[in-house]
Amino acid sequence: MTPDTPDTLEPHQETALPDWVDYNGHMNVAYYVMVFDHGTDKLFDHIGLGKDYREQTGQSVFVVESHVTYEHEVHAGDGLRVTSLILGHDDKRLHVFHHMHRTENNALAATNELMFLHVDLAARRSATFPEDAVRRIEALTKAQSALPPPQAGRAIGLKAKGSATG
Hints:
Blueprint: E1 12-15, H1 29-46, H2 51-57, E2 59-70, E3 79-89, E4 93-102, E5 108-120, E6 125-126, H3 131-144
Antiparallel strand pairs: 1-3, 2-5, 3-4, 4-5, 5-6
Protein backbone atom coordinates (compact mmCIF):
# COMPACT_ATOMS: atom_id res chain seq x y z
CA MET A 1 0.00 0.00 0.00
CA THR A 2 1.20 3.50 -0.78
CA PRO A 3 -0.08 6.94 0.25
CA ASP A 4 -2.71 8.64 -1.92
CA THR A 5 -4.51 5.46 -2.94
CA PRO A 6 -8.07 4.66 -1.84
CA ASP A 7 -6.97 1.63 0.16
CA THR A 8 -4.48 3.44 2.43
CA LEU A 9 -4.78 6.17 5.01
CA GLU A 10 -1.80 7.93 6.50
CA PRO A 11 -2.12 8.56 10.26
CA HIS A 12 -3.13 11.99 11.54
CA GLN A 13 -0.33 13.59 13.56
CA GLU A 14 -0.15 16.60 15.86
CA THR A 15 1.51 17.77 19.07
CA ALA A 16 -0.18 18.32 22.44
CA LEU A 17 -0.10 22.04 23.23
CA PRO A 18 0.52 23.54 26.69
CA ASP A 19 -2.98 25.10 26.65
CA TRP A 20 -4.46 21.59 26.47
CA VAL A 21 -3.06 20.61 29.89
CA ASP A 22 -5.47 20.72 32.83
CA TYR A 23 -4.93 21.21 36.56
CA ASN A 24 -3.92 17.53 36.88
CA GLY A 25 -0.86 18.16 34.72
CA HIS A 26 -1.97 16.11 31.72
CA MET A 27 -4.01 16.66 28.55
CA ASN A 28 -7.65 17.42 29.35
CA VAL A 29 -10.26 14.92 28.14
CA ALA A 30 -11.79 17.45 25.75
CA TYR A 31 -8.53 17.64 23.79
CA TYR A 32 -8.34 13.87 23.38
CA VAL A 33 -11.73 14.09 21.67
CA MET A 34 -10.53 17.04 19.57
CA VAL A 35 -7.44 15.14 18.39
CA PHE A 36 -9.63 12.15 17.52
CA ASP A 37 -11.95 14.51 15.65
CA HIS A 38 -8.99 15.72 13.58
CA GLY A 39 -8.27 12.06 12.77
CA THR A 40 -11.91 11.66 11.75
CA ASP A 41 -11.61 14.70 9.47
CA LYS A 42 -8.62 13.09 7.75
CA LEU A 43 -10.51 9.81 7.34
CA PHE A 44 -13.58 11.55 5.91
CA ASP A 45 -11.49 13.61 3.48
CA HIS A 46 -9.86 10.35 2.37
CA ILE A 47 -13.16 8.58 1.69
CA GLY A 48 -14.77 11.63 0.09
CA LEU A 49 -17.10 12.61 2.94
CA GLY A 50 -15.25 15.68 4.26
CA LYS A 51 -15.96 19.41 4.21
CA ASP A 52 -15.90 19.67 0.40
CA TYR A 53 -18.48 16.87 0.16
CA ARG A 54 -20.76 18.66 2.63
CA GLU A 55 -20.47 21.95 0.73
CA GLN A 56 -21.09 20.32 -2.67
CA THR A 57 -23.93 17.95 -1.72
CA GLY A 58 -25.68 19.31 1.36
CA GLN A 59 -25.02 15.97 3.06
CA SER A 60 -22.71 15.11 5.92
CA VAL A 61 -21.90 12.55 8.59
CA PHE A 62 -22.95 12.93 12.24
CA VAL A 63 -21.60 11.11 15.30
CA VAL A 64 -24.46 9.21 16.95
CA GLU A 65 -22.39 7.31 19.53
CA SER A 66 -18.87 7.66 20.91
CA HIS A 67 -16.76 5.79 23.47
CA VAL A 68 -13.30 6.95 24.60
CA THR A 69 -10.80 5.03 26.72
CA TYR A 70 -7.79 6.72 28.32
CA GLU A 71 -4.78 4.40 28.52
CA HIS A 72 -1.70 6.58 29.22
CA GLU A 73 -1.30 10.23 30.11
CA VAL A 74 -0.41 12.79 27.46
CA HIS A 75 1.61 15.89 28.39
CA ALA A 76 2.40 19.18 26.66
CA GLY A 77 4.83 18.64 23.81
CA ASP A 78 3.97 14.96 23.30
CA GLY A 79 3.68 14.01 19.66
CA LEU A 80 0.45 12.17 18.86
CA ARG A 81 -0.45 9.82 16.03
CA VAL A 82 -4.04 8.77 15.30
CA THR A 83 -4.75 5.72 13.17
CA SER A 84 -8.27 4.97 11.96
CA LEU A 85 -9.91 1.62 11.27
CA ILE A 86 -13.25 1.08 9.59
CA LEU A 87 -14.96 -1.74 11.48
CA GLY A 88 -18.09 -1.88 9.37
CA HIS A 89 -20.73 -0.01 7.44
CA ASP A 90 -24.20 -0.31 6.01
CA ASP A 91 -26.05 1.97 3.62
CA LYS A 92 -26.31 4.83 6.18
CA ARG A 93 -23.93 4.08 9.05
CA LEU A 94 -20.16 3.85 9.49
CA HIS A 95 -18.42 2.20 12.49
CA VAL A 96 -14.91 3.56 13.11
CA PHE A 97 -12.19 2.89 15.68
CA HIS A 98 -9.27 5.26 16.35
CA HIS A 99 -6.04 4.54 18.22
CA MET A 100 -4.01 7.46 19.61
CA HIS A 101 -0.34 6.71 20.25
CA ARG A 102 2.40 8.92 21.67
CA THR A 103 4.96 9.15 18.88
CA GLU A 104 8.08 9.17 21.07
CA ASN A 105 7.48 5.72 22.60
CA ASN A 106 4.51 4.34 20.64
CA ALA A 107 2.51 4.01 23.88
CA LEU A 108 -1.22 3.72 23.37
CA ALA A 109 -2.62 6.93 24.88
CA ALA A 110 -6.32 6.49 24.11
CA THR A 111 -8.91 4.87 21.89
CA ASN A 112 -12.13 6.20 20.37
CA GLU A 113 -14.93 4.08 18.97
CA LEU A 114 -17.58 5.91 16.95
CA MET A 115 -20.80 5.25 15.08
CA PHE A 116 -21.59 7.77 12.34
CA LEU A 117 -24.83 8.37 10.48
CA HIS A 118 -24.95 9.83 6.96
CA VAL A 119 -27.42 12.75 6.93
CA ASP A 120 -29.20 14.97 4.41
CA LEU A 121 -28.65 18.40 5.98
CA ALA A 122 -31.74 20.03 4.42
CA ALA A 123 -34.11 17.29 5.59
CA ARG A 124 -32.13 16.67 8.82
CA ARG A 125 -32.73 12.95 8.27
CA SER A 126 -30.55 9.96 7.55
CA ALA A 127 -29.61 9.31 3.92
CA THR A 128 -27.78 6.56 2.06
CA PHE A 129 -24.09 6.94 1.31
CA PRO A 130 -23.21 7.79 -2.30
CA GLU A 131 -21.79 4.91 -4.34
CA ASP A 132 -18.33 6.49 -4.75
CA ALA A 133 -17.97 6.86 -0.97
CA VAL A 134 -19.10 3.26 -0.48
CA ARG A 135 -16.39 2.12 -2.91
CA ARG A 136 -13.72 4.05 -0.98
CA ILE A 137 -15.05 2.75 2.36
CA GLU A 138 -14.95 -0.82 1.06
CA ALA A 139 -11.45 -0.43 -0.40
CA LEU A 140 -10.08 0.88 2.90
CA THR A 141 -11.96 -1.78 4.90
CA LYS A 142 -10.49 -4.52 2.69
CA ALA A 143 -6.97 -3.10 3.02
CA GLN A 144 -7.34 -3.03 6.81
CA SER A 145 -8.86 -6.52 7.11
CA ALA A 146 -5.54 -8.16 8.04
CA LEU A 147 -4.98 -5.80 10.98
CA PRO A 148 -5.66 -7.15 14.48
CA PRO A 149 -9.14 -6.38 15.78
CA PRO A 150 -9.27 -3.45 18.21
CA GLN A 151 -10.84 -3.45 21.65
CA ALA A 152 -14.16 -2.38 20.14
CA GLY A 153 -17.56 -2.87 21.70
CA ARG A 154 -16.58 -2.21 25.30
CA ALA A 155 -19.31 -1.25 27.73
CA ILE A 156 -19.11 0.99 30.76
CA GLY A 157 -20.78 0.24 34.07
CA LEU A 158 -20.41 -0.83 37.67
CA LYS A 159 -21.06 -4.27 39.08
CA ALA A 160 -23.71 -4.42 41.78
CA LYS A 161 -22.32 -4.35 45.32
CA GLY A 162 -22.02 -7.79 46.79
CA SER A 163 -21.49 -9.49 43.44
CA ALA A 164 -18.61 -11.92 43.09
CA THR A 165 -16.69 -9.49 40.86
CA GLY A 166 -17.83 -6.15 42.28
